[in-house]
Amino acid sequence: MTHINPPATPDIANLKYSKKTQALIDDMTAKRLDWAQEDTKLAELEDNVTDAKHKDAMALQAAAIANEPDPGTENTEAAKRAILYQVERVRHARSKAQKAGTLVSKALHTDRIAIIDEAVKNAEVGIEIWQKEVSLIQSNYELLVKARHESLEGLRMLSNLGMTKDLVQFDPGFPVSGNLVVPQVREDRVLGLLDQINKLFHPADPVKPEALHAKLGTAEAQSEPALH
Predict the structure, then answer these.
(1) What is the pLDDT of residue 205?
(2) 8-state DSSP, 224
(3) Which pLDDT score is estimated for 201?
(4) Which of 3, 89, 95, 169 is the most buried (most CB within 10 A)?
(5) Mean of the per-residue pLDDT values of the chain
(6) Residue 168 in domain
(7) Residue 228, pLDDT score
(8) Is position 8 within any domain?
(9) Do 182 and 134 contact (CB within 8 A), yes or no?
(10) What's residue 223's pLDDT?
C-alpha cells in the first residue's frame, strides 16, 4: 500500500480572524478536503488490485482449459496503472494543501497580536463559565443529599422505634451508593499563563505596536512555529 503523509497544515482554533486570514483558512480547508478525497480514492484503487489479479487468474485458467492463448494480465496492469495515476493526483493535492497551509501560517503570525487577545479572552470567559457551573453542581449536590436525608427520616424513625419489626426489620442507615466526584474549579496553571500573557502584551507601561512586533519577530526567528 502506498503511504503518502498528510499535508502539513496548521491546526485552526475556533476564533475570529480577519477577513483575509479567514479566506485563506477556508481555501486551505477546501484544499485539504480535496487531498482527503483523492487519498480515499487511492485506497479504493489499491483494494481493486486483488480483484484484478483474481480476474486475470480466472481468465488464464479458463483459457488453458479451452486451449486458447494466454489472455495476459490486462486487468492487473490496468489496476496498477490506475494506482500510479492516482498517486500523482494525491501528491499534487497534498502539495496544494500544504502551500495553502503555509500561507495561513504566515497570515496567522501577521495577525498574531489580535489572535492572542482573542484566544486569551475566550479562555478567560470559558474558565469563568467552568468555575461557575462546576460550583453550581457542587452546591446542587449538597442540596440533593440533604433533601434525600430528610425524605428518609420517616423510615429511620420506623426502624428506630421498631414500628414494623413484627413483619419487617431493617437497618435505619441508607448510605448513598457511590460517590459523586466533582473536579476542582481552581485553574491556577491556566490563570497564571493568562496573567503572564496579559502582562507581556498589555503591560502597565504600554509598548508601542512596532516594538511589540519587533520583539515577536526576534522570538519567531529563534523558534519557527511547527505545523501539524
Answers:
(1) 54
(2) P
(3) 86
(4) 89
(5) 88
(6) yes
(7) 44
(8) no
(9) yes
(10) 45
Which grid cell sits at 131? 468555575
CA distance 164 to 166: 6
- Radius of gyration of the chain from its Cα atoms, rounded to whole angstroms: 33
Is 67 exposed, middle or buried (CB count within 10 Å of its CB: 0-12, 13-18, 19+)?
Answer: exposed
Q: Distance (Å, rounded) from C-alpha 121 to C-alpha 126?
A: 9
- Give the SS3 label for residue 152: coil
Place of cell 481555501: 27
How many structural domains compose the chain?
Answer: 2
Q: What tens digit of pLDDT does each residue of 166-185 get?
A: 999 999 988 878 777 878 78
Which among 9, 4, 5 is positioned nearest to 32, based on CA atoms?
Answer: 9
Residue with cell 421498631: 162
Cell of 24: 485563506
For residue range 196-211, list pLDDT tens digits in order. 998 988 876 555 555 5
Phi first, then psi: what are they for 147, rounded to 5°?
-65, -40
Residue 227 has pLDDT above 70, yes or no: no
Q: Same domain, yes or no, for 118 and 104?
A: no
Q: Are residues 181 and 202 in the same domain?
A: yes
Task: Number of helices (H) and strands (E) in the chain: give both, helices first.
Answer: 6, 0
Q: Which residues, in sequence order, are CB contacts of 156 under 8 Å at separation 6+?
A: 172, 174
Specify whether the CB–CB gap between 134 and 183 falls below 8 A: yes
